[in-house]
Amino acid sequence: MFPTQFAWGAGTAAYQIEGGWNKDDKGPSIWDTFCHKGGGHVFEDHSGDIACNSYELWEEDLKCILQLGLTHYRFSLAWSRLLPDGTTNHVNEKGVQYYNKVINDLLASNVLPMVTLYHFDLPQALQDQGGWKTPEIAGIFDSYARFCYETFGDRVKLWITLNEPFVCAKLGYEDGIFAPGEKQPGISAYLVGHNMLRAHARAWHSYHTLYKEKQGGAVSLALNSDWAEPLNPTSSDDIAAVKRYLAFSIDWFTWPVFVTGDYPELMRSCIEVRDKELGYQGSRLPRFSKDEPSILGTADFFSLNYYTSRKVKDEGGRPGCRMRSDQGAVGVVDPTWPVCGVSWHVVVPGHLRRLLNYIKDTCNNPAIYITENGFSQVGPVDLDDVQRCGYYKDAIQEVETAIKTDGVDVRGYFAWSLLDNFEWADGFRVRFGLFHVDFTRPERTRTIYRSGREYASIISKYKTQIKTNN
Ligand code: GAL
After folding, report:
1. Which sequence ranges form a coiled-coil region, renumbered to this chain (predicted)?
2. C-alpha span between 372 and 412 (Å, rounded)
């Protein structure tokens, strides 16, 4: 049995579904630029130019939401659709109208919006000024956040400032496989992560100082993490490597926000050892300034995105200036683990529950929303996606056990994703939807997968239980 008021949702993100990349005065974002430059950065040079065309077909999305019986829908605002150059100097009223319609239609249908302010799509105009690497971005993001609270906050009560700073920093600046595609290993990811935390904290404080009282909502940031286990469970080196692996992934962001207000000591000490070896003055891991608003406590709930697991082995002593050498550990896929869809994505029963317990234990038992969790597919479309049905049933069962048996305070579950969509560097090759989208047709026809029906029936069973108990 799930708690009353449990949120049953599904999620999407603007660049992945909207299309209309330059319609009605929208400014370009770093994903527009990244896709348009071609050269195979994205599978077969796909782009989100049209994607699911949700900018024009929102009402089709709403039908899907209603068919599933969701209580909540998580979507993101395209910053450069609202503010084409990223600043409040110029507001695109058509963008405001679009999101007003989405929010109003949801509320009229009794579905509550959870709104992400930033899901990977920085306005290109801001990137041109240095983007997330510059300290000024925190104040610029804060202005954007205030604009959104002011414009939509009378109706939106659940806000996510940033989606997955880990992914933005690591894939965008360490590996260079996500926009903006920069590769400055061992340096920029720490700086970007730092400025993202500062930006988030500013936006959280603004909400609490200026809007919380009259709007009564809650603000957090979405953090993702693999679950990690030692490759060799009897090796003390591998066990220590798991600690470092987590320190450089989830703890990197949870320590500042939920635990101490600063980066994990373990992370800092690993980086500083390597700084000395490399002859760096100071540290590549920035420090939070005492003159800025505090980072600690800037989340009203924990927003968790969880997909996959790794076996971790020690590789301390690896040379070079990279995050991987700093952490002295590497995560690998255990060949016995079932892979779904893409090679990075393995599904191991019990691991979501372990990660939930890890968060409960390390972050002072916060209220948790699982804001993303899902199952990828590649290859020929199979509307009868039995495996994904099994996945959702098991994952939701694990969440229930974590609540009932372990006392984890889980408040909601959002399947990723409502629709098949533009899966970043994998383009349209990888499908996560509860609804299939036919990308070969201009109508972008949506058709429910068997897993969509399965999820709808789980939600309806829950709603019946609530009614019966009342
Ligand atoms: C997350 C991301 C989503 C989605 C998902 C599946 O990192 O927030 O946008 O793409 O991964 O890979």
Report:
1. none
2. 10
According to the model, what pLDDT value does residue 231 have?
Answer: 98
One DSSP character per residue, 333-351 reads --TTSPB-SSTT-B--TTH
What is the torsion angle, in degrees rounded to the nearest 10, for the CA atoms of residue 224, residue 152, residue 12 and residue 9?
80
- C-beta of 116 in contact with ligand 1 (< 6 A): no
Cβ(28)–Cβ(22) under 8 Å? yes
pLDDT tens digit sequence for 262-279? 999 999 999 999 999 999
Q: Which two tokens stand for residue 420?
A: 């098949």
Helix 93-108 to helix 137-152 angle (10° resolution) is 50
Secondary structure (3-state) at 221: strand
Q: Is 204 in the pocket of ligand 1 (CB under 6 A)?
A: no
Annotation marks residue 454 as catalytic: no
3-state helix, strand, coil in the chain (%, to 5): 45, 15, 40
- Candidates 304, 424, 444; CA nearest to 376 is 424
* Model confidence band, residue 1 (pLDDT cutoffs 50, 70, 90): confident
CA 432 to chain centre: 14
Cα dihedral 161, 162, 164, 166, rounded to 10, equals -120
Q: What CATH code would you report for 7-224+349-469?
A: 3.20.20.80
Q: Which residue reads 């997955």 in tokens?
A: 164
pLDDT, residue 362, reads: 98
Name which of 413, 427, 425 is nearest 70 in CA terms.
Answer: 413
The mean pLDDT value for 117-122 works out to: 99
Domain spans in the chain, listed from the N-terminal domain onward: 7-224+349-469
Is residue 439 in contact with ligand 1, taking CB distance under 6 Å? no
Q: For residue 222, how far is its CA from the centre of ligand 1 (angstroms)?
A: 11
Q: For 219-256, write each residue's pLDDT tens digit.
A: 999 999 999 999 999 999 999 999 999 999 999 999 99
Both structure tokens of 341: 């869809």
Question: Mean pLDDT, the chain, as a whole number?
Answer: 97
- For residue 11, give the nearest of 429, 451, 439, 419 by alpha carbon: 419
Residues 154-161: what's their mean pLDDT? 99
Q: How far is the CA of 13 from the centre of ligand 1 (A)?
A: 9
Say what the pLDDT of residue 466 is: 80
